[in-house]
Amino acid sequence: MARRIPGLRHLAVCAVAVLLSGGPAAAASASPTPPGSTNATAGVPTGPNPVAARLDAYWTAARMTAALPADAAKGSETGPALSPAVDGPRPGEYIPPSRSFDGIPQAGTFFWTDAQGTGRTCSGSVVRGPRRDLVLSAGHCLKGYSGTAPQRRLAFVPQYHDGVKPYGVFPVGAGGVYVPQQYYDLGEHAGAAYDFGFAVTEPNQDGTSLQDAVGGVRLLTGTGYHHAPVRMIGYPAGAEKPLECWSRTTRWASDDPADPGTFPRIACDAFVGGTSGGPMLVPQLDGWAVIGVIGGYHTGGNTAQVSYSAYFGSATRALYDAAISGAPPAGAGGARG
Q1: C-alpha to C-alpha distance for 263 and 186, rounded to whole angstroms
Q2: Residues in Cβ contact with 298 at an 8 Å cutoff, skipping those fewer than 6 apart
Q3: pLDDT, tens only, 98-139
Q4: Could you tell me which CATH number the domain at 49-60+68-331 has?
Q5: Contact between residue 209 and residue 200 where contact means Cβ atoms under 8 Å apart
Q6: Cβ(336)–Cβ(214) under 8 Å?
């Protein structure tokens, strides 16, 4: 008989109740001021952004639906063959189900075109920062756009669903992508422990900054591997809606010499290509906090039932500090943009 996770449903219900109770968490996690508006907390819109308007026109519902995942191997059972153990569910392990929903304002998806002009997509989440413009994702999603790499129609669409862009399109400009230098130097597999990244966005069509439009989640680092409940959100490529799943994270020590390190591990069904970069969220008194993103070991896992994250520690905090300070981002070959 499949093993169920004791008390997880009760924990998830309690977490939702806290976040919807009308206290500080509700204020933090609810959709704040609409684009184009101002209040005492939000920044003043800077005026229409023509770059965002052009990207909004380019990324039609048809193009967004047709975009392919940046992480085609996620959930495809085609990852590295070096692992002596199965990258997936343990015998008898209960796999919490996922469900499609309309999303939350603080999670969304990146869209961009690759060198051949093909649309690509990956998931991300809005992280609180002093400049109110930061998105967290996986390093393997963003690594091609760090440093001086051209930004090919790269934009973030918060709470994308059903072909709708409810808060508009937020461009990512040149020099606005931060991925650890270690990830470039070691590569996707040997550098799996550094598979995270940040993107600095520009205002949307109305001139509203990202965090002013949708709020943000808190970045947590150095908090260990074991968390419950955890709400994981991701955008499968080609799907009309994102997925969410409630589960818990545990510690996974790699048995694959190609992907060394220790990683948070989470069992959740149906997280396939496109969900990489999606946040692993835990409830806090002031809203949601993010403790990981789909990525890391085997770039997030080779099966659709189990996902991983790079551990968020001092390297994650250092990269966040670089992004909010506007320091030059890293790049392939140690180049700085």
Answers
A1: 17
A2: 73, 79, 80, 83, 87, 189, 192, 256, 259, 308
A3: 999 999 999 999 999 988 889 999 999 999 999 999 999 999
A4: 2.40.10.10
A5: no
A6: no
